[in-house]
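Hey, weird one. I pasted the TraR/DksA family transcriptional regulator sequence into the form twice and got a warning about non-standard characters only the second time. First submission, copied straight from the form history:
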Amino acid sequence: MTDEITRYSDTDLAEFKEIILGKIKKAQADLDLIKSAYMNDLNNGTDDTSPTFKAFEEGSETMSKEANSQLAIRQEKFIRDLKNALFRVENKTYGVCKVSGKLIGKERLKIVPHATMSIEAKNLQR
C-alpha cells in the first residue's frame, strides 16, 4: 500500500481555483486593453505634417498593430489555458503532471497555474 497523494485536496483545489479566476480576470482586462489599442486609429494628428513623417507614422502604426495582434493571440491562448486549468480543478485532476502522473509542486502551480507538467517533466522535454 502506498501513501503517495494522487490529487490535491478539495481545500487546495479551492485555493487554486481562486488564483486561476483572478488570473483570468486580469488576463481578460489585459486582452481588452490590447484589443482597444489594436482597434484605435492611432492618427496622432499627422494630417497636416510632411509626407515623409506621415509615411514613418503609417509604418510605425502597421508595426504596432502587428505587434498588438500577436500580443492578443498570446493573451487569448493564455486565457484558454487558464480556463482549461479551471476545468481540471472542477474534475479534480488539476495539478497532476500529464507526463509522470505525479503531483506538480504547489509553488509552481501558484506561479504558473495553467501548468500541466512538473518541472522535471518540462526539463526532460527540452
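That's the output from the first submission. The warning seems to come from a hidden character in my clipboard, not from the data itself. Residues 10-41+53-94 form one domain.
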